[in-house]
Amino acid sequence: MEALLPLRFTGFSVLVLDQRLLPREEKYTEYFDLEGLYESIRSMELRGAPLIGIAAAYAMFLGVKNRSFPNQAVLLETVKKNAERLNQARPTAKNLFWATARLVRLVERNIGLRVDEIIDRMRAEAVRINEEDVEICRSIGEHFLTVLKPGMRLLTHCNAGALATYRYGTATAPMYLGQERGWNFRVFVDETRPYNQGARLTAYELHRAGIDATLICDNMAAMVMSKGWVDAILVGSDRVAANGDAANKIGTLNLSILARHFGIPFYVATPTPTLDLELPDGNHIPIEERDGEEITHFLGVRVAPEGIKVFNPAFDVSPHENITGIVTEKGIAYPPFELSLKALAEKTGPSGNG
Ligand code: MRU
Asked: Which of 23, 37, 105, 180 has the fewest Cβ atoms within 10 angstroms?
């Protein structure tokens, strides 16, 4: 089965798989400029923290490609403005801010080169960020396999899968590697209301890959755990603070509380570009609020009364005390996370971060 690629760089444009149409249709749209990719991220045509970072890196290149700049200073000014623009697309995923800052730093470091040479390096850096993601996810998968056993029953939430990265996903990486090695994991997939990333995306990609996946509604997670049917919970993350508090899709907090209640290991997959060690704890993580129609309507049909008040936060924060381990590409951090995350962040690894 061909790998499901959520995005493809052609050298002068980016093809984006429209995730809003999945699982009904696999349709790619081609973008040639920054604004197109900005809108693609904002509208959730593409989503998932690592993929947002990759798209933003390409957008930084497309934002200056084929434009003429009188000198390097004007180029740098434009690159900084473009970063600010892209950073407004979505507020929670750290990878977006990490990727745009990495491109700004690259231009600053190479300011002595000719303008066309700097732009060429921006293209190469965006490609590097994209390629690193594959290594990061594979590595996360390998670390996961050191704490999992063949035949385990796993539970995941939202889509921290191949569709949220370039390959393998983060929380799903051990599922794909496990499949290559005949580990026969069985996976419960939370539907993930209100945007249904679990039902539409994770169920789709795992099923397509032939992994044993069972879809459940979010409010069934406690029941399957109470039956003893879940050996470990694996989720992704959008931003992780210095103390290990982890923001991920709304509903992850519930799972972390349930995991603690039932004594089930709760692992958070976190590429180091998702770490935000400048934030002391999860209270400082910006949480996106989305349109109430995601709750009042289902498939375009109103399912709640006109005029009802709606609260629709897209993410919540699982407190560090509920987390068994934070699985990065450089190893697994265990409590106390202040120390272990800092040590891992300083280690060299495939993210160009070390
Ligand atoms: O709103 P989304 O779909 O971008 O949210 C995605 C998630 O919360 C994922 O779990 C997270 O980004 C990790 S993806 C490897």
From this structure: 180
